[in-house]
Design brief:
alpha+beta, seven-stranded antiparallel beta sheet, 16 helices, about 30% helix, about 25% strand
């Protein structure tokens, strides 16, 4: 699992979108600032700040205990402006870490008393989720582990059954008077969204309940980055071409003024649509913009941007699905593939070691302990050097889960790599019947079988030696255990879940 921290504002906006049905949840409009912004210009774009209302200013850079470190500022227009002028670009030291403050948020001030501050957190463990609650939140909460009450929710295969009961929540929350019902419902819905969006950690301190409204005053969160294929649509708004185009629109004047040249290289699923949007915005804003797809090496644009390498050829269309559908006449597999170059410009000489092609003189990296072993019920252990890598040119795989974007992305990559045939031979998913699914291998339409039974999938495709599983944390244990009963499996990989906990 790759748990990625998200900024406070990004985490709040994610919860606001998915908890919007709770009418008592306040969703105030925050102002995001960078160290290069002009405060007055940005303030006029924010309605409540333009009206002169009080606000809270703080850096939004994953810094813990900002209040304790004196980084949170309250006040009206002049106080907030002064705080921004003081903190922008400031170098600070917290513990042994030194860094520069460059990203900030300003939110409306919420008048309340200490008794209105609560603490709630959700943490994913190996085989359970734990909800922590304490009725005295805020900056002076102290030792949370010692004070907070805990509710453990065991991991279950049935997603709908894995939730706290009303009785469990009442015991966790206790008697908050007239606030009890609202807080109980909020925590129940918060946990539902926590699972839905594949959070691995979520802390709200303080959670303020005042005047029959719920406010998220401070938040820390982490998302399971490997769940992108499951949650990309739910997470939308986090980065990607939307963030890039928004940044272009925000800083277009400054980029033109300083003659900034922009280089964008993108691959992966739906890269054509993303590059199209970026290019259109660049043209509309008259920016000096160059975009490249997966036909260009990921680092090739760096040398071009620094002026030490020629500009990559952008006229060659990428060998991937969308381009073939749009412009099949550009498909030319007969053109030779240029060999990789060394730093002095000469072709790299290749050697083959244990099934893996490597550059001459490149050291053979020994396998990590456990990685070279066979993953199966019986048979001798595989030698790490003999396996060489997870995927060789002829490796074939079965995909667990209905992840059609991921499968199409693998097929696109196969074609870019000039494989003779797709690496994916079938998919399996126990909640659908046997069927055929349409994909593209280059410009050729193909049908891949999807099986309800994993056993049938492996029997029908005895040449498949790899299982790529997108099982959730509630089914990954059973899925992998079942797969390991088939001796042809030499590896399993790709568990997309909050945590592989069993």
């Amino acid at each position: 699992m790759s748990a990625k921290p998200v900024s406070e504002l990004s985490g709040k906006e994610l919860l606001y979108r998915h908890l919007g049905h709770l009418q008592y949840l306040a969703t105030p409009k925050a102002l995001r600032l960078t160290e290069r912004d002009d405060y007055e210009t940005q303030r006029r774009k924010c309605d409540w700040l333009a009206r002169g209302e009080k606000g809270v200013f703080k850096p939004d850079q994953l810094i813990k205990r900002r209040g304790k470190h004196g980084l949170v500022h309250l006040g009206g227009h002049e106080e907030l402006k002064a705080a921004f002028q003081k903190r922008r670009g400031e170098t600070i030291q917290i513990g042994k870490t030194t860094g520069r403050l460059y990203s900030f948020i300003v939110e409306p001030f919420v008048a309340h008393e200490d008794k209105d501050e609560l603490y709630v957190a959700i943490v994913s463990g190996r085989d359970e989720d734990v909800i922590l609650f304490y009725e005295q939140g805020g900056v002076d909460i102290g030792d949370v582990d010692a004070k907070a009450r805990r509710l453990s929710i065991p991991v279950l295969l049935n997603e709908d059954e894995q939730k706290p009961s009303e009785e469990q929540l009442r015991e966790l929350i206790g008697d908050l008077g007239e606030k009890t019902g609202m807080v109980t419902e909020f925590i129940s819905e918060l946990y539902r969204v926590y699972k839905q969006l594949h959070f691995t950690y979520l802390e709200i301190n303080p959670l303020v309940v005042v005047n029959e409204r719920v406010y998220l005053l401070d938040l820390a969160a982490k998302l399971d980055e490997t769940a992108h294929f499951l949650c990309s649509e739910l997470w939308k708004g986090r980065g990607g071409e939307e963030g890039i185009t928004k940044a272009f629109e925000t800083f277009a004047d400054k980029m033109r003024e300083h003659r900034v040249t922009i280089y964008v290289r993108r691959g992966g699923p739906n890269f054509q649509e993303g590059l199209r949007k970026i290019k259109e915005v660049g043209e509309r804003l008259s920016l000096d913009l160059h975009v490249f797809g997966p036909e260009t090496h990921m680092t090739a644009i760096v040398g071009a941007a620094l002026g030490v390498r020629p500009m990559p050829e952008a006229t060659v269309e990428p060998h991937a699905t969308g381009r073939f559908l749009l412009q099949p006449e550009r498909n030319d597999l007969t053109s030779p593939v240029p060999p990789p170059l060394t730093t002095n410009g000469s072709p790299v000489k290749k050697q083959r070691t244990g099934g893996t092609v490597r550059a001459e003189g490149e050291p053979v990296t020994p396998p990590i302990e456990g990685e070279g072993a066979a993953v199966g019920s019986e048979g001798p252990a595989f030698d790490g050097a003999a396996i060489g890598s997870l995927f060789e040119r002829g490796t074939k795989a079965i995909i667990w889960g209905q992840q059609q974007k991921a499968i199409q992305g693998m097929l696109d990559f196969d074609y870019v790599c000039r494989r003779d045939c797709p690496s994916v031979v079938a998919s399996t998913y126990p909640f659908t019947g046997d069927n055929k699914q349409k994909y593209y291998f280059g410009h050729k339409e193909i049908l891949l079988p999807a099986y309800k039974s994993m056993e049938r999938a492996f029997k029908c495709h005895s040449d498949a030696s790899v299982l790529v599983t997108f099982a959730s944390l509630r089914s990954v244990y059973e899925t992998v255990t079942e797969a390991l009963q088939h001796p042809q499996i030499k590896w399993h990989n790709g568990c997309v879940s909050r945590v592989k906990r069993e």
